[in-house]
UniProtKB/TrEMBL annotation:
Ranges where the HTH araC/xylS-type domain occurs: 195-293
Entry-linked InterPro entries: AraC-bd, Homeodomain-like_sf, HTH-like, HTH_AraC, Tscrpt_reg_AraC-type_HTH
Name under which the protein is recorded: AraC family transcriptional regulator
SUPFAM superfamilies, A to Z: Homeodomain-like (SSF46689), Regulatory protein AraC (SSF51215)
UniProt entry keywords in alphabetical sequence: DNA-binding, Transcription, Transcription regulation
Length: 303
């Protein structure tokens, strides 16, 4: 019987009172089984060491390691020689950054601009680690309290963390060429209808949907919706939907033993022929070849 990774359905914008969730795991000696969820996740290791596995790739994590995980990427944590580890897990709905036009650039950088080919992992230096650790503790303090305006405070600290992580990589100097600069005079509209549409696509991409259906559902013209999706994501609606589904399929291919037909259905495709054609176009190889190549890479790396 095929074992499916757990879908953490409790982590959605509809099921939590505020779309930012934080956990501090202290002295952990228990492995975290494969799972995925709708939220973007940042894992920040404070102490000890562990193996963080994302889409089948093993990352040796220690103090200062940061791992950014896109929604629905299958991930788990493995113990290293019975050594305990301490890490922050910050999970949030990226659409919270659409509330401000300027901060939307952060979403485009981490979600669209960083590329969906792989998750991002990197090692902070001592100064950066100390700074980011302080910001995480500040979020946790308010997250566990009922202080006035705590949601606004937590959101502001999240923005600080994202900026510091981007700067630590030196990537804040460049611009993402895949999407046009935003016209901030349109942010009022982006913060309503288009925000809702993008959130719906990101949350329901495994279900049947069409541009025309979304236009009717959210009462916005099809041409305008098509234009705005392309402006924000750098892709057409169809390409963006395929992008989400194919990346989900890649995650399943390398993280599970599901057969290709099962992967196709689990990734939202009702037609195996369409899945195979789109996968070949997106990845330049068949799903079975992709799986074999990823496993060969892991073996070569001695993992």
């Amino acid at each position: 019987m095929t074992k499916y990774p757990t879908n953490e359905i409790s982590l959605t914008q509809e099921t939590v009172p505020f779309p930012i969730v934080m956990h501090l795991t202290t002295g952990q000696l228990t492995a975290v089984l494969p799972h995925h969820h709708q939220f973007y996740e940042i894992s920040f290791y404070v102490q000890g060491s562990a193996l963080d596995v994302v889409d089948g790739q093993i990352i040796k994590a220690s103090r200062g390691t940061v791992i950014c995980k896109l929604p629905h990427r299958i991930h788990e944590t493995r113990i290293v020689e019975r050594q305990p580890y301490t890490k922050f897990s910050l999970m949030f709905d990226m659409d919270i950054l659409l509330e401000s036009g300027m901060e939307y650039e952060l979403k485009r950088y981490f979600y669209f601009g960083s590329g969906r080919e792989q998750h991002t992992s990197f090692q902070l230096n001592k100064t950066e680690t100390d700074l980011v650790e302080r910001l995480f503790h500040e979020i946790l303090k308010d997250f566990e309290s009922d202080r006035l305006f705590r949601h606004a405070y937590i959101r502001s600290k999240l923005v600080e963390i994202l900026i510091e992580l981007a700067r630590s990589q030196g990537r804040d100097r460049g611009k993402d060429s895949r999407a046009e600069p935003l016209n901030y005079s349109n942010i009022g509209l982006l913060g309503s209808k288009i925000t809702q549409v993008l959130h719906y696509i990101n949350s329901h991409f495994l279900m049947d949907m069409s541009l025309g259906g979304l236009s009717q559902q959210f009462d916005v013209s099809t041409p305008y919706l098509s234009k705005m999706i392309k402006k924000i994501t750098g892709m057409t609606f169809t390409d963006y939907l395929h992008e989400l589904r194919i990346e989900m399929a890649c995650s399943l291919l390398v993280s599970t033993r599901m057969n290709i037909l099962e992967v196709s259905g689990e990734a939202g495709y009702s037609s195996f022929k369409t899945f195979s054609r789109v996968f070949l176009r997106k990845k330049g190889m068949s799903p079975s070849k992709y799986r074999s190549k990823q496993h060969e890479s892991d073996s070569t790396a001695g993992l």
